[in-house]
Design brief:
This protein is mainly β. Helix content is 12%, strand content 51%.
């Protein structure tokens, strides 16, 4: 009986641990988003949902938002002086503006807006566009200054006159560790002025897995772009799928496994402070 009680206690403990991890993982559900209009004095309306906020990680990660840019709608041009933001589109196309210069990007793509710069986005098409917004600051405080410019009909440069990124699976390369894992450092630490350290793109093949790693200097926010699999954080394992957002804080171990379909992830890395970021820049800038 004593042995049975111990086994039962262990099973209950494991179930409780999984429930704890599961409670930290959020899921994007378009049906649960709210409609926002004239965002930063932008045109039209968009669907908006928050997946992570300032309480999610101990570092200066501010938020991860997900939603839909409706046709002929967007986010007006605005400044950030104490935080950095990146709009990402996962399909379709949209007109991105950085510091008053506008170009059309085809998804999946994005453009980081560094501290002291202005940006906006507009969906000029007749189809909705899947949208994401990432924000990291020099503190937990978000700031913005609107310019009253919706960018509708703005002149466009054929070649973007600002930093852009594209989530291109063809550019992924086999990872030095793990099984069935390909990855790419899409944006490195030199891109950002804040503790934002990197933006990575990773694919884990069905049955493949990453090795378990831990960092006391870098926290990470993961988002499942497509596919399914599982994540293990500090020994707790939970199934994940497209639309899930997974936080991994400083000092936590993590590993991922592919499921029935390739598990495609984006990873936002945030250093615990600027001194750590500078050391990371010196060591890691050319590691991918």
């Amino acid at each position: 009986m004593k042995r049975l009680a111990i086994i039962t206690a262990l099973l209950l403990s494991s179930t409780a641990a999984q429930a704890q991890l599961a409670s930290k993982i959020t899921h994007y559900d378009p049906a649960k988003t709210r409609v926002a209009t004239a965002v930063h004095d932008g045109a039209g309306a968009m669907n908006f949902g928050a997946l992570m906020d300032t309480k999610t990680l101990s570092t200066d990660f501010i938020f991860l938002h997900r939603g839909i840019l409706q046709p002929k709608s967007g986010i007006g041009q605005h400044f950030h002086n104490h935080c950095e933001e990146m709009f990402v589109i996962l399909d379709g196309e949209a007109e991105f503006t950085i510091n008053g210069r506008t170009s059309t990007l085809k998804g999946p793509a994005g453009a980081p807006n560094r501290m002291g710069a202005s940006h906006g986005i507009y969906n000029a098409t007749d189809r909705p566009v899947e949208w994401m917004n990432i924000n990291v600051g020099t503190s937990k405080v978000y700031d913005a200054f609107n310019l009253g410019d919706d960018r509708v009909g703005a002149p466009k440069d054929a070649i973007p006159q600002f930093i852009t990124m594209k989530l291109d699976k063809a550019l992924l390369k086999p990872a030095p560790t793990g099984t069935g894992v390909t990855r790419r450092r899409v944006l490195g630490p030199s891109i950002f002025f804040s503790p934002w350290a990197y933006y990575d793109h990773v694919m884990v093949a069905p049955g493949g897995s990453t090795v378990s790693t831990t960092s006391s200097d870098i926290s990470e926010a993961y988002y499942v772009i497509s596919g399914d699999g599982s994540v293990t954080v500090n020994g707790e394992t939970v199934a994940i799928k497209k639309g899930d957002a997974i936080p991994v804080d400083l000092g936590q171990s993590k590993s991922f496994k592919g499921g029935s379909a390739p598990l495609e992830l984006m990873i936002i890395g945030i250093a615990k402070d600027m001194k750590t970021k500078e050391a990371f820049l010196a060591v890691m800038a050319n590691s991918f």
